[in-house]
Please model this.
Amino acid sequence: MENNENLLEVRGLKMHFPFHSGSLLNRKKGYIYAVDGVDISIKKGETLGLVGESGCGKSTTLRAVAQLHKPTAGSVMLKDKNLVTLPSNELMSARKDMQIVFQDPYASLNPRMTTRDIISEPLRIFNKAGLLTMTKTEIDERVEQLLERVGLSRFFKNRYPHEFSGGQRQRIGIARALALKPDLMLCDEPVSALDVSIQSQILNLFKDLQEEFGLTYMFIAHDLAVIQYISNRIAVMYLGVIVEISDSAELYKKPLHPYTQALLSAAPIPDPAVERKRQRIILTGDVPSPDKVRTGCYFSDRCQHRMDKCNDSIPTLKDAGPGHQVACFLYNDPD
Model:
């Protein structure tokens, strides 16, 4: 993966959801600031892992990148095209280069469709739109090739989702995502619903596919071991913003942001001697409500290193070493 060209560039991405009073007039009461200014770049052929606790905005970020949510603000540049401003016909064409693997293999497949229909659906839709020219025979051949490539028999193509295990269903979801030969795959916790023994198989499949097809991944996971294994770089997210970005090995070796340190301290280490000696960082307080406009550091309410300026200024990502950025006043002062 020696490539300096960015395939995806996200700048100033915001996703604010309005909520209403619930009264008879149902007036707008405010906004949920689910994603509040995210900057991400992903190079061709690399895997960027996005990690953070539940509700921090990871999946919303991924869906806003895919334009499943229309962003409140910001730009999403894929192959030098801003997906946010593309008209619908051009956006559909751009979707060929970007596909999603969803979290729940039980909910993401239509139970009334056969495996053949599920995997071929993107091909048939793009055929109908005039963006592909494939015959029915070619589509069938492509389905069989994809099934075998993800580790399933081509004879499974006439079966329905209920006839498969969770891991097999996720393989079908991966085959569907590969159908249009995308450059970028957005993976929304694709192994979190699977048994641990199956997780490793699916992760290795992702790695093999990346090497074979030159794929680029944006990969979300709760499990820090999964993120470490699959990612080249890792972005740590808290309350809708990125607080630290670094190469995977560097982040686990030298986490800088207090939130990243607390997050990694909660992950068990499979070495009893090391596990007994290390100290857990216990965060106090709860995650602030995402409906409040922030005037200071997003993490200041729970940070043991809080300073006065943390309440008045919002730190931005600054270089803290080669390929390492952190948004914290411990390492940079407000402009």
Summary: The chain has ten helices and twelve strands.
